[in-house]
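Standup notes
- DV: blocked on the single-chain target, sequence here:
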Amino acid sequence: MVAIIAATALCMLSACATAPHAFSSDPLAIMGGDASWYAVVPVSGNKVLLEELAHNMDNPQSVKNVLNRTNRIYLSGTLLQDESSGLLPFKILATGSYPKSMASIAFSSSRGWEKQGAVFGSVWFKNGYFGAAIPRKGLVCMSDSALMPGMLENVQKPFLEPIAVDPLFRASVEQPDTDSQITVFISEASYFLQLILGSNITFAAQNILITASPDAGSKGEDYRVGVRITLADQRNARALATLFRIVLNVPIHIENNTLIVNEQKMTAKELAHKFYFLYL
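- DV (later): unblocked, structure below
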């Protein structure tokens, strides 16, 4: 669902070009510190995967067109559905060649968007549950409509304290756009493990880091996917390792209190399917 929303809104900007946005502050500070998970998705090197995801969306060709104008996508969200909408709250930040002047055209009333006026100097638009804005040249914000004012406030006044994430994820956020590794950081690790294992067993998991890197020479058609699960102590790591071996049947090893799923090879199509299964 998140990818579909993002692609649909971004497609409205696919015919417009301007200089790419360059962050002068931490993009996670715009997302805020209340998410269950964060992800960074560089477009470079991942077009085959992203186009595979586009196949299940409305107007996939428009999605492919907009990818040519997008450098990087940052996402965050929760693992619990919103009680009123039944949807999973999310925030999306996309950088690329998007002119600020195109917001009123991209998010026009003929497409179902309602202009909400200025919040912290940025006009934003609402379409039912969803909100969108182009607060700066080359920068697109999207989220639940209820979250949009806070997100725009963060654009103008980002958090001064760094958002607490794994250092390996922080490093991926700070990589140049030419880096192709997709990285997902999950802070609500115990609940996520219950979801994927289909078990009510609770492990003292602190966080999960998932990486997906296109294989060199594969032109983005093959990936190496790795998972690191940091637990409270080695006892919990050994217990989870036992369950993983039984339920998931994947090669793993333990380093101190971290369970590491050895890198698995996947095609872009297989990885796209797993992304849909887990969240979309």
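- Follow-up: The two ends are 4 Å apart (CA to CA).
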